[in-house]
Amino acid sequence: MTRRRLLMISVAVSAAFHGALLAVAPQITVVHPIREADAALRPFRLRIIDLPPPPPRATAPDGEPGLATRPGTVRDLLQREIDRIDPGADELRKPAEIPRLTERIASDIPARPHDLTPDPSFREGLDARIIEISQDRVREEVQVARRLVRPSPTRLLDEGSTPTLRSALDIERESLLLIEAMEAMESAGAGDGGDGGDAEASEEPPPRELDPLMPPDPRTGIALRPLEREVARAPVIRQIEQETSDYATMDDMVELELETYEPPDEPLGYFRLRIAPRTDQQMPVLPKDVTFVVDASNSIVQHKLDLTVRTLTDLIQRLRPEDRFNIVVFRDAASGFRDSLTPATPEEKQAALSFLSGLQSRGETDVYQGIRPVIDTPSREGVPSVVMLLSDGRPTRGIVDGRTIINALTDENAMRKTIFAFGGGRTVNRYLLDLLAYRNKGESHIADGIEQIPDELQRFFGRLEDPLLVDCRADFGRIEEEFVFPRELPDFYRGQAVTVYGRFDPRREGEFAMRLTGKAGAERRHVIFATDLADAKRGTEEIARNWAFRKIYHLIGEICRLGERPELLAELRQLSAKYNIRTSYD
User: Fold this and answer.
1) Structural domain boundaries of the chain?
2) pTM for the full predicted model
3) Which residues make Cβ contacts (< 8 Å) with residue 232, sequence separation at least 6?
4) What pLDDT digit, counting tens, does each position of 368-403 carry?
5) What architecture is domain 289-465?
């Protein structure tokens, strides 16, 4: 038999077997089906019957109701939380036995370190008074008043204000409450020992009268005893002496002019304070540190750069020998004349002119990298540190967003240096130059045309030649800081007045007090100014509009720092509409 025939026989047998298996497969039971589903469909009968409630629980002994261990209803379950378990009658009627209670209480008298009986001689030498001021003056005016004006142990309260203890009183003196307690104890003692008994003890003591021989205070009408004057004013005077001992006064060197304006339809008034050096007094001029930051990128045309460099050489020649200076030229990278500030000697000035000679306009503009190294250089204490930026403020490399540049440089500078910005022509980015200078205690100036750059740059720098006072701080007492602009006072220069605008409440603030402090080299100076607002010179509505203009400038700076927040934009537009001042956000 051949292999082929065997294969065919095997295939035929296999096919016949599988065919027979498929034929009988339906008849073969492998798994029995589940028949439980049929049982679920069987019907059943439901009957609802009413069962009587369970019998009540047996009451506790003596007929008193007890608490059920298993509540019968929801109401019983809630009532269980408030049920009170009353003790038995035997526990309430049984007295507590404490051996020798009376003797132990009589013998256990605590020892007192001090005698509670008041000493009449001590009371006669004690004269204390509660001095009150309004609550809204505690944090601000009291501190300024104690430093700026003649100290007073009393201050009149405004109508509707909350009285508060003044800290000027000596801590060792007793309060009026102690005196009243001592008088009450004496009255009670006199009633027990004299005729009349309880009737006399219940009577109030007669009111204490001030000494008629002491003259009253001219401002308050209250007579003050010598002891009270001495104790109340001594701590204040000592604090004033300590705070002002390190300061040299310059009251005779500056002029202060205060003007006020009170609109008839507004509750708050406006004030303008001008502070300027006196022309008949010569304050010593401070040395200065100046860094000229020059933009020499291709955004500055060569003719414009030549005029700027020519004017800059004149400014360097005007520096005094005690001044220090440096020059930083930036394009896509910055290069300096010196690694640090150098004295303004004739040799250094001549070297600086050689450094500027032949300066060409080329490359891209990286404003941030041009100014950042200058900010990192150290400054001298008590000496103005000035950064004079000469640029169009149009970056094309590095950080190109003006808001990011302003915020980054301002945060890194932290008011250590004053930035002044100057530009010329119609292609200047005023937003960057204005806000960069404003937020760093400086100013900006833009010349309308390129040909005007030499004259206007000379005049702009001439305002900074004679510095007199740096690191200036002002304290206006009760006037809130949010109403005063500018927030950061600029440095003082000869021939330049510093003008401050603010608001005040005529109903509450009758006195204007200001203390100005600053540094002049190693010496600290201050000036104190106090006057009645009623005596101030009356101004016009121009004061209100100038105040609004400076607040708008402050709000734009806050928008630059924080973004276009709805509350800032709403306040900006409200001021713009009320005072008719147009801005880029209108």
Assistant:
1) 120-204+217-244, 252-282+469-579, 289-465
2) 0.60
3) 131, 153, 168, 169, 170
4) 999 999 998 888 899 999 999 999 999 999 999 999
5) 3-Layer(aba) Sandwich (3.40)
